[in-house]
Design goal:
The chain is an alpha+beta fold. About 45% of the residues lie in helices and about 15% in strands. The chain is built from 3 helices and 3 strands; from the N terminus they run αβαββα. Helix 1 crosses helix 2. It starts with a helix and ends with a helix.
Length: about 70
């Protein structure tokens, strides 16, 4: 069973190096609606749910950008 606190800690560790290691400015991840602990950890870590993309279906995906992390 997933634990929100543990997931939040993992997300925090990933964000510290991910952007530079992979030379990206944003990250996306999927969390199905029944993954309540995961969704809560993502939202509490600054991720936003992706909505309304006409070209590619991003149902149940969450996004965070380097800029959003720097603002926190």
């Amino acid at each position: 069973m997933e634990n929100e606190g543990v997931l939040t800690e993992i997300l925090s560790m990933i964000e510290k190096e991910f952007y530079d290691c992979f030379r990206v400015d944003a990250m996306i991840t999927k969390a199905i609606p029944t993954a309540k602990q995961r969704i809560s950890a993502l939202l509490n870590s600054g991720y936003s749910k992706i909505v309304g993309n006409a070209l590619v279906s991003f149902n149940d995906y969450y996004l965070i950008s380097r800029a959003a992390v720097q603002e926190v």
